[in-house]
Amino acid sequence: MLIRDAHPTDWPTIWPLVHTVAAAGETYTYPRDLREDQAREMWMQDAPGRTVVAVDPADGALLGSAKMNPNHMGPASHIASASFMVAAEHGGRGVGRALGEHVIEWARAEGYRAIQFNAVVETNTRAVRLWKSLGFSVIGTLPEGYRMPDGSYTGLHIMHLAL
Questions:
Q1: What digits encode the pLDDT tens for the residues 131-162?
Q2: CATH assignment of 2-162, among 3.40.630.30, 1.10.472.10, 2.60.40.1180, 1.10.3720.10
Q3: Which of 79, 83, 80 lies closest to 65 in space, CA to CA?
Q4: In the record, which residues are listed under signal peptide (predicted)?
């Protein structure tokens, strides 16, 4: 797979992924009825943030995307954050891991001291397992911080990786 900077011309292939994930309502705190203009503004990062795509070099198919950015402003701007989406049909192929490793390398190169994920849905066990395998730890959980599509509640993990 090839991971490269996302360009404005990539948005038409990124939007269906973001829309599908948001509408499913199982892993992101985005509104389930997220509009395309809202999604584009949130996902397509300007400096000092960055958005990348993972594509299949054989046919250019979108495998996934990640956005990375300072998590906070001012005196806490040395902490990065990131978000990741992998196309369901490409799950289990290492796309999430490759994007995660890419973000960690980026954050180190940019001089961040840590990466903080603010809201990892507790029932998203694949993501939790992946982030832990890359060295992240759960530093807190907001009990019942996330409402699932069926109306039940689950926790939101705050995850941290010191760089």
A1: 999 999 999 999 999 999 999 999 999 999 99
A2: 3.40.630.30
A3: 83
A4: none
